[in-house]
Amino acid sequence: xxxxxxxxxxxxxxxxxxxxxxxxxxxxxxxxxxxxxxxxxxxxxxxxxxxxxxxxxxxxxxxxxxxxxxxxxxxxxxxxxxxxxxxxxxxxxxxxxxxxxxxxxxxxxxxxxxxxxxxxxxxxxxxxxxxxxxxxxxxxxxxxxxxxxxxxxxxxxxxxxxxxxxxxxxxxxxxxxxxxxxxxxxxxxxxxxxxxxxxxxx
Length: 202
Ligand SMILES: Cc1cc2nc3c(=O)[nH]c(=O)nc-3n(C[C@H](O)[C@H](O)[C@H](O)COP(=O)(O)O)c2cc1C
Known about the structure:
Blueprint: H1 15-28, E1 36-42, E2 48-54, E3 57-59, E4 62-68, H2 72-79, E5 82-89, E6 94-104, H3 107-115, H4 119-127, H5 137-150, E7 162-176, E8 184-191, E9 194-199
Antiparallel strand pairs: 1-2, 1-5, 3-4, 4-7, 5-6, 6-7, 7-8, 8-9
The structure holds flavin mononucleotide.
Flavin mononucleotide (FMN) binds at residues 33, 36, 49, 51-54, 65-68, 71-73, 130-131.
């Protein structure tokens, strides 16, 4: 197999444009869920937790995902609005890491995205007290059926606890798997002068 590599001269000056390039490549590849990413958060005491979420939007402002604000991650983010993301696109042998401050997307933006979701997911967002203890699955299904009847022939509004979060990157790292574990790694760091790029040892 031809070795992939990342050369400093090929890097775009803007890391969000660099991400867009790689993301496009991942979407065109055999990667099953190119938009799946690890989201790491920490609470006010710095206790970490991580889970997968889906990237729903990415532009110059940052990386957007949606979740329940009362969940474990939602509680972490209300105490400590910072996060780290990891994408790993195995067939491309590439990894991207992102770290930054987190803000909520506007309610208009969240409403607009919620309206595009399948009805079952919309009802699920109301029915599931994400990350809380529930007696059994039947309770969840009963709640969903009641909501189905409640919203029969009506649009399901966005629950107030269901929100979008934007990770606004302060650093991004682009990594390519190379032979002998001598991988290529480049980090972009935001500075008052613009994005600074440095190469990191693998
Ligand atoms: C591939 C994948 C994508 C997921 N995407 C989301 C998502 O976009 N939003 C979400 O709230 N949970 C998503 N989940 C579920 C989370 O991993 C997690 O179980 C849930 O959000 C509760 O996490 P918490 O208790 O740490 O808050 C996804 C799980 C997988 C495996």
